[in-house]
Amino acid sequence: MRIVIAEDDPLLREGLALLLRAESLDVVATAGTPEEFLAALDAQHPDVAILDVRMPPTHTDEGVVAAIEARRRRPDLAILVLSAYVEQTFATELLVGGVAKLGYLLKERVGRVEEFLDALRRVVAGGTAIDPEVVAQLFTRSRQDARLERLSPRERDVLALMAEGLGNAAIAERLSVTHGAVHKHIRSIFAKLDLAPTDHVDRRVAAVLRYLEEVRHQV
């Protein structure tokens, strides 16, 4: 796994690099500005980029803009964005382009090393890793949608965990229910969101995308 880190705080940047190298992961470059990050992207061809949301010069959305540009240049690039707190607009800007190989975590998760490494590996493998707090806030904003209002509280919990990128077994463990119960809830979610079986669309992905798309229109 080849990794580029883009973080303007030198202590956090080097701390992340040390943590990842201690796990025998290959940090091929670090950058303190979006320009340095994009140059490293072109030179090093990483598998995954870890970026701070707020970077120089204005410390607003430069990290998000750089992430979107990186995905434009390298559609196969996995991206894990870190933020000090939930920034709904920035989250939805990233997610609207698709959820594959994408993570959005609060920086506090880095201190929970196993959770952080699990999220990193998940996005590199082609999955999604969205911070539970981000999902909770986005879900709260989206609950006025009529289709989402059809869902029961437990179905909302299941869809929220699906949006985090968890599989059925992990959802069952998180909610302390059986695998069969999770499967039943997901079938009900598909029905209530009018997602009929088709050979052309993964209904699980479609359910999450529909949820995130509805959120985007409310931001």
UniProtKB/TrEMBL annotation:
It comes from the Bacteria. It holds the Pfam family GerE. It comes from Streptomyces chisholmiae. This is Response regulator transcription factor. Residues 2-122 form the Response regulatory domain. The modification 4-aspartylphosphate is found at residue 52. Gene3D superfamilies: 3.40.50.2300, Winged helix-like DNA-binding domain superfamily/Winged helix DNA-binding domain. The lineage of its organism: Bacteria, Bacillati, Actinomycetota, Actinomycetes, Kitasatosporales. PANTHER family: TRANSCRIPTIONAL REGULATORY PROTEIN NARL-RELATED (PTHR43214:SF24), TWO-COMPONENT RESPONSE REGULATOR (PTHR43214).
